[in-house]
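Supplementary Note 3. Input sequence used for the single-chain structure prediction.
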Amino acid sequence: MGRKLSFSHHHQIRLFLLVILSSLVYIIYLFAVPNFITSFKIELRHSYGSLVGHTDSTDGSEKHTPLQRNASPKYKFLRDENLQASRHLPDALIIGVKKSGTRALLEFIKLHPNVQAPSSEMHFFDKNYVRGLSWYRNQMPLTLEGQMTMEKTPSYFVTKRVPSRVKKMNPYVKLIVVVRDPVTRAISDYTQSSSKKPEYLRKSFADLFYINGTNVVNTRWGIVRIGLYARYLDTWLKYFPLSQFIFISGETLIVDPAAEMKRLQDFLGLKVIITEKHFYFNTTKGFPCLMKSETLASPHCLGKNKGRIHPKIDESILDRLTQFYRPFNLKFYQMTGIDFGW
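The predicted structure, written as discrete structure tokens, is reproduced below.
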């Protein structure tokens, strides 16, 4: 009888220890697993937030859930967790300058998993303002928590009524300005315009540059006027402090894109992800192109319209144009604190 009691006693102890161990495992499961899932969600939001789709809810509001039915485990986790995305007004705007590298900059920064932007120019603040902010918001891409929305329309920089409208939308918006030697920019703009406007083919650059055959520069010609960066910046600074601007060199963006992208990522408060490994130089086009990467399935160069061959302009006209822009360039250097060397 004593041995039976001893066996029963040991059995009860083992059973008691097993219950305690099971309880500990359950407690660990309750507290550790949800925290792991939460951190995993955050990681996925930052890394794969662009892979989301849209569904309409019955109450008329928008709800957005991930797609990717035949996806990797991480994408399936996104879908199964029913993470929702929404549309937001821009946190940052590329406001100019036309023919200075704004398209390249947008394509480069969109490599960052925390940046989402529409592919086309919205022209909201200069041409579509009457449509209202709700319309503008609906043109924006879907974003998840931790991602920022960006939009590019180069004509914003030179349109007088735009700064006040932008401030009404968001007084703390970050403003990105890509600038280039105004002489080169003007010729590039003329080259593009000549391919689109037949009337340009009937006149030379000199005919348009000078007023009625004189030596007076035609400042009413938009292609020349856009290069007066200091004048336009002066208007913007009446509404926003200089600290909310970053000025990107269009020349440096070509020869060292990684350097300018680091500056931009720092300015936007983003982790520096876009580096030298994302670029290669296309000698045929004379522009940097994007390497295959985590967010780009194959190497990518800008469209065929980029890198057009410029027409030959008489040296005397180039000298006159350089002289014309010099005081405005010096003023722009003073305002921005950057000597671009034009």
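The domain at 75-184+227-307 is CATH 3.40.50.300 (Rossmann fold). DSSP finds 13 helices and eleven strands in the chain.
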